[in-house]
Structures are given as structure tokens and as C-alpha cells.
Design brief:
The chain is α/β, with parallel strands linked by helices. Among the domains are: 47-292, Aspartate Aminotransferase, domain 2; 408-486, Ornithine Decarboxylase, Chain A, domain 4, CATH 3.90.100.10. Helices cover 39% and strands 14% of the residues. The chain contains 19 helices and 18 strands. Helix 4 packs parallel to helix 13 (277-292). The protein is globular, with a radius of gyration of 23 Å. The termini are far apart. It binds pyridoxal-5'-phosphate (PLP). Pyridoxal-5'-phosphate binds at residues 91-93, 117, 119, 168, 172, 196, 198, 232, 242, 244, 447. Pyridoxal-5'-phosphate (PLP) is lined by residues 91-93, 117, 119, 168, 172, 196, 198, 232, 242, 244, 447.
Length: 489
């Protein structure tokens, strides 16, 4: 923009443009993986706005793949080792909805974790699916409620008349759920496994295997037997928000577990009739990046991470075990005794933005091309966090209570769809004991429901929400202290 254009912008009121412009000089440890566009080549960056067009003879239609669109999808299918890949330009929220609609019909019972993303709960309600929540008795490691393999296998054995399974892996904190045995058990029952791998698009990178992180590089969901997999490329690869891919496996087609024709039919039902070409082109770009450049970026990032972790003050530690996503940086700051709000303030003062800060950990999603300066800035912020701990009440208890919430489940006689559409009233959440929630209650991020629609509100829920609000959490489903509850109880 030339000077006079900037001056015009300054005089007029463009709140979004102004706010987003000022965010550009900060250190990004959050999605999107395109790092404010800087991860794109200069040529692609300059092209982006010009790529915005409609369905023309020369371009084709992303919802009706043929010609050049089909070629781009075939290349993606090769890179991601699927039988068919679709570009979804409305995020994995839409990919998962399409997957559920393709694999199931209204009334079907689908096994899933309580810690499924709220978009999954919304989709189940919309599609009239019955979400059968997996019984969890082991405390989840993190506040996204990720389940254990044994819990999934046990529920698969115990639950009757299942039409399929939907699982999330990796979780928000980079924890992976091994899928191979689960897929074998589900397939033995003839039912499909859909995987929400929104955070795992980069697992398709063919890493060199030199460093420990590369040696333990996680396997993709497809390679472990999943039938349908949704991935948000924008979260971990250089792609525009909200670029997503939906992959279908050859085994799903051959076994008849998922019909490719039904999947194709669902695309235009849930995806806008004007899919975004710039977003789709960024998926083409991300696929090419994986084919040619990504492995070197991963090596470099893992080296930087190792160097960074070696210099961490003792009050902060990395939460990582073998099998986790080695690119995700989860830092436990509880030993610093620093409050969540203070951590925010310190990071902000160092111009560092992370993906999520919970009561115990901060989750950093370093884009694959994160510069060394950004790690230096994050390191300086961590040193200050280590020095300035002064929290009066123990946040660790809140973290524990948040994880324990995934072990509480109350069944409801209503389906999700009924709970969503039943008569409801707004109530102070403090007065909602014993009532049934009309919607999803989910701290955001990560957006994993602590309570599903129709579940009964317990005293422990109310206490936890108050604690989270005191820590300045945004809780979806609670607005100005009010919660929607069903009136017909
Ligand atoms: C686990 C998980 N699944 C699904 C989604 C939805 O993905 P998208 O933002 O691409 O619609 C998210 C978003 O954060 C997520 O964290």
C-alpha cells in the first residue's frame, strides 16, 4: 500500500483491518501454520488475492472435481496416501460433518470421546446421530480429555448396535491415540472409524529419521487403518485458514464401509456452493511443500526445540513423551506459581502469542518455519515467568478438576438433536444445579465439551466453571454468567 492509501485507512474506521495489521510484528506460536503469510513463498503470497475467482470453465468446481481440480486432488491423495482426498475450504468443522453424514444416518449410534471437539457435538445434533460417549476411568493427561486406547477398546466391546466410531488424534496437546487395534476391532464388527486429525496434517511429512523426534515421528491415521480422516492443514502446514482435507481410504471403499458416491453427494450439502479458490490453492501449495521442502523444515524445527528446551528454567518443563507430536511444545508452568493471567501478560510484553494457556500448561504450535528469534523471545518470556510466580490459590487443583470432568458422564433420555431443539431458559449457572444443559459447555480453546447437551449439571461442574471464569477463561455455552437449561425437566 502506498502512503496515501495508508493515510486513507488511518482516517477511516476499519476495525478488523487495523487490528489484524498490528498483529503482524509478533512471535507466533499458534495456528495458522502459514505464520501470517510469511511461510509462503513471496510469489505465492503476492498471488493469493488474485487467485480468488469463481467456478469458470478454466477453473472447474471444487465440489464437482474434474480437470485441474481433480488433478490437484489426485496429487494430494498420493501425498497423504488416501484413495480419495477432497479439499474442504470451510475447515475440519465441515469435513467432519461431511464425514459423519457420509458414513451414518439419523438415529445411528456413534461411539466417541466426551472430549470430542464441540463441532462434532453440533454435527451429531444436526444429523440426528446418537453420540455414545466412551467410558473413561483414567484421568486424561491434559484438559482436552483425550482417551486411552484401552478405554476405546473396552467401549467398543461393550456397546451394542454401534454404527461407527469417531476419534480425535492427535489431541490439542499433541497426544496421540494409537489407532491400529481400534480400527481392527471396529472393522471386525464391520463399522467405520472416522478420525478427527485436525491437528495432524503434518504427520504425512516423510521425515529423515535422524533425530529422536524424527525417529518417533507419529503415524498418520490412514496408515493405521482409519476409514475417513479430517485434517486442518491451516493448523500445522503453510495453508490459509480454514483449509481442510477429507481423506477416504481404499479399504473403506473396498469393504463398503463408506460409499464414495454418498461422500461426493454430501460435499455440496455442507460445503458452501462457492468454495474458496485461494484456500484450495493453499492446500495445493501445502501438498507441494510436503513433497519437496517440509522434511528439512521439520529437522530444523526439532533442532530449535531441543535447543530451546535445554535452556528452560527449572520452573518450566516440557510435557512430552515418546509418541507425542514432536512439533508441539507444551510447557507446564505450574512450578513457577505464576497465575494464568500473569503468564498472558508476560508473553504479551515479549510480543509472543501462544495457542492456549490453561491452568497448568501453555500450548505452543510453532509453525514449521518458526525463526530462531521467536524462540529467543519465548525463552525470555519463560525466564520472566519463572521469576515472577505469585499465584495465591492453586491453579493445579483447577487443572485437575478440569481433567476429572471428563470422567463424569450423565446419560440423558433425550437425543442430542432433541436437547438442542427442546424448550430452554437462561439461568445464572450458579443456580443450575440438577438441571440439564441445553447446549455444549466448553472452555475455548480447546473447545472440548465439559458437558454435552442434555447432561445433568453437578455441583462439581458449577465449581469448576466458576474457577475457570475466575482465571478469565472464555467458556462457550456460558455468557455473562448465564447458561441455557432445558425447561421440561
Ligand atoms: C480437535 C479439533 N477438531 C476439529 C476442529 C475444527 O477444525 P477447523 O477449525 O478447521 O474447522 C478443531 C479446531 O480447533 C479441533 O481442535
Amino acid at each position: 500500500m502506498n502512503k496515501s492509501e495508508s493515510a486513507v485507512f488511518a482516517e477511516r474506521e476499519l476495525p478488523l483491518v487495523s487490528a489484524l495489521k498490528t498483529g503482524r510484528n509478533r512471535h507466533s506460536f499458534h495456528m495458522p501454520g502459514n505464520r501470517a503469510g510469511q511461510a509462503f513463498s513471496a510469489e505465492f503470497r503476492s498471488l493469493l488475492a488474485c487467485l480468488d475467482t469463481t467456478e469458470l470453465a478454466a477453473t472447474g468446481d471444487i465440489n464437482e472435481p474434474a480437470g485441474i481440480v481433480l488433478r490437484a486432488l489426485e496429487l494430494a491423495a498420493r501425498t497423504f496416501s488416501s484413495a480419495q482426498t477432497y479439499f474442504i475450504t470451510c475447515g475440519s468443522t465441515t469435513s467432519l460433518r461431511i464425514a459423519l453424514a457420509a458414513a451414518f444416518k439419523a438415529g445411528d449410534r456413534v461411539l466417541m470421546g466426551k472430549g470430542s471437539h464441540l463441532s462434532v457435538a453440533n454435527s451429531c445434533a444436526l444429523l440426528g446421530l446418537e453420540a455414545v460417549l466412551i467410558k473413561q476411568d483414567t484421568l486424561p493427561r491434559f484438559a482436552d480429555g483425550q482417551m486411552k486406547e484401552a478405554e476405546v477398546l473396552r467401549s467398543l466391546k461393550e456397546e451394542k448396535n454401534l454404527a461407527g466410531v469417531l476419534l480425535m488424534t492427535p489431541g490439542y496437546y499433541g497426544e496421540n491415540l494409537p489407532l491400529e487395534k481400534i480400527c481392527q476391532a471396529a472393522h471386525a464388527r464391520g463399522i467405520p472409524v472416522i478420525v478427527d486429525s485436525a491437528h495432524g496434517a503434518h504427520f504425512a511429512i516423510k521425515v529423515s529419521g535422524k533425530s529422536p523426534g524424527e525417529k518417533n515421528w507419529p503415524r498418520t491415521a490412514l496408515s493405521q487403518g482409519a476409514d475417513l480422516v479430517a485434517q486442518s492443514a491451516h493448523k500445522t502446514l503453510p495453508a490459509l485458514t480454514p483449509a481442510s482435507m477429507l481423506h477416504l481410504s481404499q479399504a473403506a471403499i473396498d469393504s463398503g464401509r463408506v460409499s464414495p458416491a454418498r461422500l461426493a453427494k454430501m460435499l455440496p450439502v455442507f460445503q458452501t456452493s462457492s468454495p474458496s479458490f485461494p484456500i484450495a490453492a493453499s492446500l495445493d501449495y501445502a501438498r507441494d511443500f510436503i513433497d519437496h521442502d517440509a522434511a528439512a523444515y521439520v529437522s530444523r524445527l526439532l533442532d530449535l526445540l531441543e535447543e530451546f528446551v535445554a535452556q528452560l528454567p527449572s520452573e518450566l518443563s516440557r510435557e512430552y513423551i515418546s509418541g507425542d507430536d514432536p512439533c508441539r511444545l507444551v510447557l507446564d508452568y505450574s512450578a513457577s506459581n505464576c497465575s494464568r493471567q500473569k503468564v498472558f501478560e508476560i508473553l504479551d510484553a515479549h510480543r509472543v502469542d501462544v495457542e492456549l494457556i490453561d491452568a497448568r500448561c501453555m500450548v505452543c504450535i510453532p509453525p514449521l518455519d518458526t525463526p530462531r528469534e521467536s524462540f529467543i523471545a519465548l525463552g525470555q518470556a519463560c525466564a520472566e515467568i519463572a521469576r515472577s510466580g505469585q499465584s495465591e490459590h492453586s491453579q493445579v487443583k483447577i487443572d485437575l478438576a478440569q481433567r476429572q470432568a471428563f470422567l463424569r458422564q450423565s446419560r440423558t433420555s433425550l437425543t442430542l438433536r432433541d436437547s438442542f431443539s427442546a424448550e430452554s431458559e437462561a439461568l445464572d449457572f450458579q443456580n443450575a444445579l440438577g438441571r440439564q444443559s441445553a447446549g455444549v459447555i466448553a472452555p475455548y480453546p480447546p473447545g472440548m465439551p465439559l458437558l454435552w447437551p442434555g447432561e445433568e449439571i453437578k455441583a462439581a461442574d458449577i465449581a469448576l466453571w466458576q474457577d475457570l471464569l475466575d482465571l478469565a477463561y472464555d467458556i462457550r455455552g456460558i455468557k455473562s454468567g448465564k447458561i441455557g437449561v432445558l425447561t421440561d425437566k
